[in-house]
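Section 3.1: Structural characterization of target chains.
Under the original work plan, the team committed to producing a structural model for every single-chain target entering the pipeline before any wet-lab resources were allocated. The record below documents one such target. The sequence was received from the expression subgroup and is listed exactly as submitted; it comprises 282 residues.
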Amino acid sequence: MKGSAGRLLSAEFWIGFWRHLTENALRSLLQIAAILIAYFILSFVLNRLIDGVLARLISHEQRFGLSDERSGRLNTVRSLCKSIAAYILMFVFGVTLLKAVGFDIMPFITTASVIGFAVGFGSQKLVKDVISGFFIIVDDLFVVGDIVTIGTVTGRVQEMGMRVTRVIDPTGKLVILSNGDIGTIINLSRNPVEEFLEIPISAGADLGRAVEVINDACAKLFEQGDHHLKAPSRVLGITAVSATSVTARISVVCDPFALPAEQMRLRAAIREALNGAEIALA
């Protein structure tokens, strides 16, 4: 005991103790400085890489007329990628810093791994929805305002989120779709939609006169301006002939969301025009 007490009181012990403490502290400080420098360099490189990739994508899209909404979505993706990269870097370098200052990180890593596995297993659907939403935005499959058919649902896209997409159908019902469940998508807004009307005319009527009257009625309706038609409707030809009737097919190029209403308006205008010309319907 006396020997131990004398050793603690000796100058050599305290000089060695402080030298050891200083060397460890200096080594820890150098490690921390190196980790921080590596963090800032890697963060800078990743941000520049993300900016470069998105800038090339925007430049490519601008050749085909990049809309303001599309540009905004690409900038949103850029911010999202930067945020994800920042969180990953902070986690990795945070664990490395704890190890550098002498903190035992194994219990922390073990606990985080168990929690991460449990959360990941329970949130597989959530992760799938988020990843699918990310690629819907990147691939520009549809945007807010587009009219789409997804599965059995047809309607206008009201909102696009990273997890769900909200669509309003023609009756006003709000349909909420998980992004991970979205499969085949039919985007009806990228090109005009052409549908048809079938008008049965009496077999004894003057067919040439009937076609002329129908085309004239369609042209007048288009000139009114209060419609969603993309082009004047016209008779395309005869689709059926029987002993009592001749069926004329009429094209309807229209905004798909307003298609049912425009078809009804065309039927009413054509019926009125044929009655006015004393051409009997079958």
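The two ends are 122 Å apart (CA to CA).
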